[in-house]
Amino acid sequence: MSDRLAIRLRGVVKRYGPITAVDGLDLDVPEGTCVGLLGPNGAGKSTTMRLLTAQAIADEGELEVLGFKLPEESKVARAQCGVAPQLDNLDTTLTVEQNLLVFAHLYRIGRADRHDAIERAIDMANLRDRRDSRVDKLSGGMRRRLLIARALVHRPRLVLLDEPTVGLDPQVRQELWALIDALRAEGTTILMSTHYIEEAQRLADTVLIMSHGRCVATGPPARLVAEHAGREAIEVYGPPVKLAEAEAAARAAGFSTRRTGTSISVLAVDGADGRAPEGERRRANLEDVFVLLTGEEID
Amino acid sequence: MAVRAPARTTLGRLERPAITGVLVREIVNFSSYWRSSTFSSTVEPTIYLLAFGFGFGSLVSRVGGYDYVEFIGTGIVATAVLFSSAFPAMFGTFVKYQFQRTYDAILAAPVDTEELVTAEALWISMRASVFGCAPMIVAIFFGLDPSWGMFVVPFIAFISGFGWACFGISVAGFAKSFENFNYIVSAVLTPLFLVAGTFFPIDTLPQWAQVLANFNPLYQSVELVRSAVFGTWEWADLLRLAGLVGFGLLLWRIAIHAMTRKLID
Hints:
The structure holds two protein chains of two kinds. By secondary structure, chain A is of the alpha/beta class. Chain A is built from ten helices and 14 strands. Chain A has a six-stranded mixed sheet, with helices on both faces. In chain A, α3 packs across α4. The two termini of chain B are 33 Å apart. The chains are: A alpha/beta, B mainly alpha.
């Protein structure tokens, strides 16, 4: 095991024809931590996830998962990893319990331990009452809990969660956050891709912001905010014309700004009371960093 | 219940636990759809049997030295195997990687594409070896004499079913869309199906078609089934068996190649 890193990527490149999905990515996930892979759609998060299970093979670079070199030793690494994909691929005509049974076999849990493993996963998913329900009869939130519990049935050392809460309502998202947090408390290493900033801020010890297949910033969420967006920001509200003026004025005064759609955020206004524009003061957050670093325009 | 930490850094190819895992998934799934697939795999050939048996059977009483019901009751076994292996393999494989993304989930576990394809083909051929015998059993009620050789038929059905399953998986692996299957069904399977000596003996065909028929795995399995049921083994049957095994092995490797291309970026 190299310095107790659960994942170690160096200079990883993955091309699909003319498109370079991952472009020289370095990524360290220390054991026992939760790392959030944050980036806009198309930044290369899902490709990175596929590279880690050798479902995509890198064109260049070194990849190690749990100390095993990829792609050659990927199968051993996969035996100790759990993966919850972005797109639900449960067997929908099977029951909750049957889905877990299948994966208990696929992850080679011995006959003696199989029953306990399945019971434990049912508890984690909080689906004790629905164990005999077919998956196509479950709500979206239940399905997602099952999808994550399925990835945990063999007590993996490393869990890969690809957009674990995408498309779910806030209540369901909170349930899943509790589940992920419990996992983290047990000492399981987690790599989680997301484009929900709040999710990364709440769950991740370290965040890596990706854009165009590269890492543009990495560190604990609070430090990234302090480094890139300062302590405080000012929100200037108003009609579009006023916003454009405010933006130009703030930039002329040497501030970085970002658009939020309904306002202009003027960033890093700490100790610049005289020069700062009028507006609502608020604490800087990870979203400020995210937009600052990955750009305001949608590709 | 900790995962046994493997001492080795690589696991072997074609491991039993991986293949078992995929088979378990299929068996558990089968419990949810066995009615419909058993129905279609057994009723369809039975309808052929009845239609040809009564239709043709009233025009011809003996074909190739057999009663027509004997001729068709044995011939149709190979067809039933084809129906219950190549078709589920094509459609099932396509649905599993394209729509259900089942294979993405399986390949994230310690299972390689080679093991996945092998297990899927084994499962389909095991099923086909059972379904394939259904029309033969039906034919017994219509006058086919039971024989000990019939117990060999499931093995012949298994070997040819494996080849056809791998054929179907390969087609699904190379296909860009569902519509592509039409070409294969019309241009490959239908001709093979008709020129297999199932419904009429191939020696009534022109010379060139008879020569070509020898390369038709379906024809080879029809002949093997007849040799088994009627106890008319001949040396050529060894060649036929070798042909079927070769067909299975070749298509097995092609299926693995096609699915690796499809599933691993």
